[in-house]
Each structure stands twice: as C-alpha cells, then as structure tokens.
Amino acid sequence: MQAKRTLILLAALATISLATAIFIFGPRSADRWTEAEVAMLRTLWLGSLPPLPPDPSNRYADDPRAIALGERLFFDARFSNNGRVACGTCHLPELGFQDGLPLAQGIGTTDRRTMPIAGMAYSPWLFWDGRKDSLWAQALGPLENPVEHGGTRAQYAHLIAAHYRSEYEALFGPLPDLSGVPASAGPAADPAARAAWDAMTPAAQEAVTRIYVNMGKAIAAFERTIMPGPSRFDAYVQALLEGDTRTMRASLTADEVAGLRLFIDRANCIQCHNGPLLTDNDFHNTAVPDAPGLPQDTGRAAGAQLVLADEFNCLSPYSDAAPQQCAELRFILSEGEELLRAFKPPSLRNVAERPPYMHAGQFATLQEVIMHYHLAPPAPAGHSQLEPLHLSPRERAQLLAFLQALSEVSD
Description:
Largest sheet: none
Number of domains: 2
Oligomer: single chain
Number of helices: 16
CATH class of the largest domain: Mainly Alpha
Strand content: under 5%
CATH topology of the largest domain: Cytochrome Bc1 Complex, Chain D, domain 2
Radius of gyration: 23 Å
Mean pLDDT: 93
Distance between the termini: 38 Å
CATH superfamily of the largest domain: Cytochrome c-like domain
Order of helices and strands: HHHHHHHHHHHHHHHH
C-alpha cells in the first residue's frame, strides 16, 4: 500500500483538462511539448500538490497550539545531553532544514546524512531507511539517540514541567507528579539511565513516556508546516499550462529545458523522482558506494524490520489511529532482495542548495551524482536498478542545469 504517494499522483492527474493537454508551439522547438509530456510535467508541478494529508496517528497534527509549542521545542537545545543540540541544529532553516554535512553531527557523529524536512508530511516513511512511519515517531528517535541529542525521556519530562508547563497542559492536559521520577532515566543506551528507568514503576514509566510522545506530536505539528516554495521550473510549467510562451522562455533557458526533457525521458530520473515533491517516497537500490570507515548499511532491509518493531509505530498504543488507518504499516513489504541497500530518494526540490549527496554524503557535487547514474556501476550488495544512461558531456551539463532550476525562488 502506498496511499500517500497514490493520493499525490491521482490529485495531479485529475487536474489535467483538454485545455492543457495540447501541443505548445513556440518559435523554438524547445517550447514544443506533446500531450503526454504536458500531462507528465503537470504531475511534477508544485501547483499539483494536493492538500496536506491528515495524520490519524497524531490527533494534534494540525492544532495551532501544537504547532506553536512544537516550533519552540524544535529549536530548544536544552533537550539534549549537553544542552547544545536541538532539532534545529541539524535541520537549519537557512540551509533548507538540513546541515550541509556528509554525516549529521549532534553530540557525536552519526552514520548518515541529515535529510531535508520540507514536504515530509506527505511521506509514509521517514529516515533514509523508513524506520519510522510518522513525523512524530521520527522526532522521538534522535532525542534518545546517544550520538544525536543523547538525552532521556525522564530528563525531557522534567524540562517540559519546568519550562513549558502552561503550553503543554493547555494542549495535552495536566502533567503528572514527577517528584519521584529520576532526573535522567529511560530505555537508553546509557547504563545508569537504563538502571534508573528499570527501577521506576510501570505507571511512572507510562506517565513519562506519554509526555515524551506528546513532545514528538507537537514537534511533528510544526514540521508539517514546512513546505518547499516554487522554483523557476514551476513558473515554466504554469506558463506552459496557460499557453504563455513569453514567460516560459523567461523561466528556463534552452539548456535547462533540454535537461528537463532528459529528466523525464532518457535519463529516467522520474522513476524515483516523480510527483510534485520530486520523490516517490519509496526505496531504491541505486548502487551508491559504501562510505569509507562506516559499517555496512543495508538500508530498507533493516529499516522495514525496525519500523515493525518500533515502540511508537502507527499500530502502537501511543498512536491515535485505528488499526485500519495504518494500511502502510499493515501491508508493508518487509522482506526480499529488493530491500537490500535500498534507500529513500529525497525530494529534488532545492537539491542544488544542499550538497553533499546520498545517504552518507558519498558524492560532493551534483556533477558526481549525475556521473554515477550515467555510468551505473554495480551495487556493493543487492540488485541495482540502474542502467547506463549513455549521456554526452553536453547532455550531462544540461541535466545539471535543470536540477539547478529546481531551487526555490525568493519573493
């Protein structure tokens, strides 16, 4: 089941009318598109993005109070072991809510690249391997990860009580009595924190975990508001649909249009990068090499098992969804060679603004990425979906030019 991806595609296709499914003839051949090509371009246009899908697992997902609280929590570095790491440390607004580093840096160094957040409310899976199935569950992972925030849920509960009591209680109800809860305790890697957690009563553990979960749901409410803005490509498609050849020519150069044609045709980029967000939110083995010095990463093969066992997945007691609303998780593909070293393709929107690339920053530039897909080397493990592209140097430059045209245009 790929409900969210299907929703986006169907919404885009449903908007195609006879008025737009035409040939666009301009004075240059670059302006001519067939009916099928126009239909394809419209599905990639940001204007085809459907309304934000609900998150039945988070009843606070669209509550303005949760959004406001979540934004404050997102940028509060007190929610870490050293008091210097916030969600916004790795997800910097000025860098497209990522950090520009090959590997994310919290209180330590992780094994993967920080993913951008914009538009992630449309994705059924989070992280490179999809080991979380909601934004709120994703938000909780780094908080206890020993090399990211590195804190404990008891520590965070005390911080909420000390600094956010009124906002929290207005949204989630009265906080429990935390006087008997240790300053730092949780099912964490730290032996002392784990021992303190195990010494707590089940009722106290449940009370603290509920506060922790509610933190994640508030952060997720804020993250749902983070969306990409339109690019020159979107201006081009809108002009195409309106028959405005002057604006089309002003929006993209001839080389960028040529790169767009390669993107949807011979280069086959749309196999993974489709829909208005330019990602199918699925998982693909594209023969990305191992990152030197890091353990072997099996991608979705491990991620599928992790999300099924996750304490906070859609079917957990902490989810607000009914079981029938968890179709993605209930019908998950959890085994098979196709999952080995398969990773989620991030959105290509603003892609030129956020090097390096791939799940561990293996490629420093977009030129290196294009050359990788052009050559289609064998996968280190599993089965690669790539085939050699046989692009000329000029065509590779045109494809690069188009990718640069996907950057958001400021007002």
